[in-house]
Amino acid sequence: MSDTARHQPITVRPLTPDHLDAAAEVLALAFSEEPGNRVLLPDPDARLRLLRTAARNQLRAGLPLGTVHVATLEHRLGGVAIWDPPGPWRTSLTTTLRSAGDALTGLPSLARQLPTAATVLARNLPEAVPTVLRRRRGVAHAGAGASWHLAFLATDPDLRGRGLARALLDRQLTRCDEDRAPAWLETTDPVNPPLYERFGFVVTTHLDRAGWLPGLWIMRREPR
To answer: Does the structural domain 3-221 have CATH classification 3.40.630.30?
Structure first.
């Protein structure tokens, strides 16, 4: 890769409806290899289809709030960050109906995966329940107060290492600092905690792997 290509400027902006499908594709690709998703949904094609549907639902919910940001590099949408704002918020009826329609479209794929997913869940339920309860307590602690929640951060696998995630984080964390608002997140990738620590996040809860549930790190960042 040339130095010119490596140092192309990154543009970060709020998601618009015309880029929703491209953003959903980035999210689906980024999370398709997540260990828990692979165990529950072993068929890669079905897994990707279901993740696309879930991603579109998440993006539509955040679109009216202006809290979904996308990063573009070389005229290509390569990164997505979905933030949940402080306080309760409501999804519009239109978004709810569209999400229901997407869910119905994905039912055939989901139905084919249900036997495997149900078997995995049943086999690991006794081990998973305590972990789920500990996660709830960890989330309540990390998300205390009027805090921003980084629900999803994803980059196109072909564009990783190009600064897209950094640009997305910098945009929102600057606002958090200006508003004196904390931020928190969850990650199942052991590579991520040291990376988030560079931005001021600290681990508040760590859960080991339990059955099909991967290890989990819950992190919080105080405003600077």
So the answer is: yes
